[in-house]
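Appendix C reproduces, verbatim, an entry submitted by the partner laboratory led by Prof. M.T., so that reviewers can inspect both the input and the predicted structure.
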Amino acid sequence: MNKYDGLARIIIQNVGGKSNIVSLTHCVTRLRFKLKDESKAQDEILKNTDGVVNIIKAGGQYHVVIGQHVPDVYDAVVAVGHLENLAEIQSDDGGSKDKNPFNAFVGIVTSVFTPFLGVLSACGIIKGVLALCVAAGWLKSGGSTHSFLTAIGDGAFLFMPAILGYTAAKKFKLPEIEGIALGLILCYPELKLGIPGSIEGKLSIFGIPVIWPAAGYTSSVIPIICAVAFAGWFEKLYKDYIPNAIKIFAVPLITLMVTSCLTFWVIGPISSLLSTVLSTFFTWLSSISPIITGLFIGFFWQILVMFGLHWSLIPLAMINFSLLQQGLGQGDTILVAMFGTTFAQTGAVIGIWLKTKDQHLKGLCPPAIISGIAGVTEPAIYGVTLPKKWPFFRTCGIAAIAGAVLCATGVVGTGMAGMGVFGYPAYIGTAQSQAVGGLAEGDISKMIISVVVSLVCVAAGCLCELIFYKDSVPEKKDNAAPASGASAAQDITLAAPMAGKVVALNEVKDEAFASATLGKGCAILPSVGEVRAPCDGKVSVLPDTRHAVGLTTAGGSDILVHVGMNTVELKGQHYTAHVKEGDSVKKGDLLLTFDIAAIKNAGYDITTPIVIGNSDDYANVDILATAGSNVNAGDNLISASNM
């Protein structure tokens, strides 16, 4: 039982009940509800509830300000209200509809990959440079330096399930070390190597046969995410029933045993079955038409890679190369058909990089481009195109056309080569291809075609995004502020709302304000009992006690001016409001007046914090006046920016 369960029940009841909740998320200090009808929420009851600091309505959201322990309260609200299907659901347009399954899947995969993108890009660049050094003869393949650099480039890919186990565990609220352990089990080398020597080439666990995917689980993505998702759900079911004396080892023991067995019993057979079906299908398809084969493989290759099912086609390519070596075949078209995918992805990322105004997204693009050129597209897929969805599918379409063109023009692979630009040598004629009446040895005509097609893919991917790509910015509605968030909050400079002496926020005698859990800013010890608007905006918070006023700007900033400490207890005495909630105000407009002497005589500290409630949406919040100095109403006081 969570110690915040009681508080959670009060919150759910007073936001209008579970049926009134559309979605729920939390930031550093507050629960962020999207409600069907905000009028059903009991603001005053919540404000007077122990454990709730304040209520703020901003950008169509209902904020219940909690403080530093908001993650624990959030977990309790989700558990008590059984809100798992509503938690962390926010549509791009701010609407109330839940994500469809595909959007939910994309959200999970990209959020799991996001912390890994920098390392993934670095490894991809190393792999590409290494391939170039070997091709140019600068480095000997198989040497100690080559092996060392290969380990750096391949290590993260080889043990990807362990890394994703960690990031997925954070997503599904499983202890991170258990997520890592599950990933390492999937990568355990002796388990995979032991399969060929087992009875009939099969592996069994407790007598139950396991059908192991041909490529194993190293470098796979979906299996570990599914395993961790199950483990996170499963562990919550039973861990509260385990005695505390043995919980430290009993919980991971049960979770690892049950999850690993089910992963190998269920995911293994499903992966193998799908791989067999795909292999059979594409073998049949290639016998009908190479052009159709190029279209299908080109379009679906990236999707198959996401599920680890592309390995079902690799054996077909290996067979084709083997037949060529034996003088029984013309070469491979399987890997030819997917050749354009790398370049389409790279071009799309270039286009988004040139067009986006999202600085975070723009920063992800250069390493993804470099990795894409080298043939490693995971940073591009998981960091850029897949989260935006349509760019991903546009690259699939471009790759499909490229596959059809390459197959139609008779391009065949004569041997394994590198990825990306390092794959071009695979299309040079060899002695084996000449022996079977194919490409003459040294013939580079097909390689030239592959170069031209790849350049066209880059250009097409770039052009499509320059034309169609749009940043995901919430639509602004008349007389309404956009939803708070990094994509909505615009740079702002706040004026001092009153005359007086500047006080550093950490000197305020209130833990919630001093610790900046309610937002970053400063305070003023007022010399004049007037609160004026520090900026243009809409009055979003004005309690009946009139001791505080909140503004929401058109740029998405939540501003709170709180006159005095614990002055809510005065129940409005000595305060006069000159605006009402919902009013639009201009910088300098009079919002409140208050009697400084009367409030002091009542025994209350008159220090007034001025904070940006959603300061976590800004990269920088700077105080423009020195603590201890005097300011007049209207002087520049605080600036917030994302630069």
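The first helix runs from residue 5 to 14. Additional entries are available on request from the coordinating office.
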